[in-house]
Amino acid sequence: MWPKIIVLSILLPFLNGQLYFPDEKSGGYVQMQKEGPSEPILPTNLTELRGTTLYEQFVDKIISTGILKLTVAMEKALTAASPNNYESIVFAPVNIAGALALVLLGSNGKTFDEISTIMGLATGVDIHNKSQLVHEQFGRLLEKLQITSGFDIGRQVNIANAVFVQNNYPIRQIYKNTAEMVYRSEVLNVDFETNPKSAEQIINAWVSERTKGKITQILNETPDSSTKVILASAMYFKAEWERPFFDGSTKRRPFYTNGRGAKSDVMVEMMSNGGLFPYYKDRDLNCEIIGFPYKGNQTTMYVVIPTNSDKTKLKELEDKLDYKQVERLVANVKYTGAIVIFPKMRIDTTIDLKKSLKNLGVRSLFSPAEANLALLSPGKGAPGTNPVIGNSIQNPISVNTTGNDVIIFNRNGEVVNCTQIFNPKSNVSTCEQVVTDSSTPQKVVYKKFGNKVGRRIDGEITPRIAETLDNVRQYLNQQSNAERFENPGLYADNVIHKVYMDITESGTEAAASTSISLSRDGGRVTVRADVPFLFFIMHEETKTMLFWGSVNTPTPNFK
């Protein structure tokens, strides 16, 4: 039996804001009171998110555009794969891309080509020879998304990755090092072979911890004993609205799945708000778009509603959309006075992405005979070491200097112990090392104090471990050409993506210091999301797509 890997992708957006909606009988007059300035604070330019060179900025653009392309393509594929084309769909593109990046990291040959293509990396960048740059910048992008998405309320986005490996199954050290340093992934050993139930419990416990207990289970059944690797990507998102919505006016209203001209057979809890929001009406696509910024104005939920929407018109709009049109819609929004009604929603769904990924061209990954994950593992019975000699980083050593085991290696990859190398006339070590027991690789200097050795951090450095992956790939390709290469036989059995989304009116920001009065006159717009709509959540500076949803009937709903 061929050894299997399972790819898991977990999403948890928890949208925590307050929405106040006026009663339609009130004549449409809204008084909104809000702490802070009446005019929205526009996002500042976060240049630190961008690469330091023009080429790195170019790669940043390729990555974010690739995620957007993946978003639109995945939405169409999920709709096509659904037995009911009018089902609501919600997924997290950046989360899926993170899981695919872990696979790309370990892939070669046809599998490498297919995944780099679906991620939009096949053109514009020399991915075969410079994959280290792409991985480093994608890892940096994920980290920056977590740090800068919500300035004054702490982190809104928490992304976690893990690689669960069968006990004693060889994983290349270079893959492990890169997954840990670039993607901050955890590489954990479990026993699929003799105790798969325990492995299931360990993985579900990891998911529960990383999603703050909101998702307690990603594996609904015990993995097969032939499973060798499970790649998991979890994402937790919690945010408050920049312009808070207020309690007190949420009420059950009709939702018109078949359009407002047809009778509604379902009720949903609708919330309301009024104020200045990013808004644009597009005549070419015959739709309107409105944005709800989150605190810090770095992340926005955009809602797109077709004119006279129903489930058929929404599907027609989705069929027309491509990534350039999504970019155009966002680029054209302007802050406009608006009265809004929007449904309170809770979505809990699990999607197997295997069929959709195959429809998008990722086929070899799921074939035992064709999958090539040779950079993840050399195969059963082989040592998990890097076959490339020279500039490659060899297996690092562990040195206990402060009571904790830390991984240490020097800049040129030689395995040395700097705690033992001192100039006879100096108490400072003359050799240079890098330590990876912190969030960022750092240069370390050792100094003697009597018979003890102290360690001092001497500045952060940029990790370049992924650089050797290209050398490994070239080496394996040479072996393949010489017919000396044996495929390790790892393949993906399925790709599981779990979504939990909660949009509520909970929250307490309603202090009054400034008020805005809006009425239904010619200078204001009314946006009613009581018909089918799509929405997406985007990080503004990087234009990275965090979430995408297509809603035909919100949940929960009531008859």
From TrEMBL:
Q: Which gene encodes it?
A: AUGUSTUS-3.0.2_07869
Q: Report the superkingdom from the record.
A: Eukaryota
| Keywords annotated in UniProt | Protease inhibitor, Serine protease inhibitor, Signal
Please give the name of this protein.
Answer: Serpin peptidase inhibitor 26
Identify one Gene Ontology CC term for this UniProt entry: extracellular space
Q: Where is the signal peptide?
A: 1-17
- Write one Gene Ontology MF term: serine-type endopeptidase inhibitor activity
The record places domain Serpin at 72-554
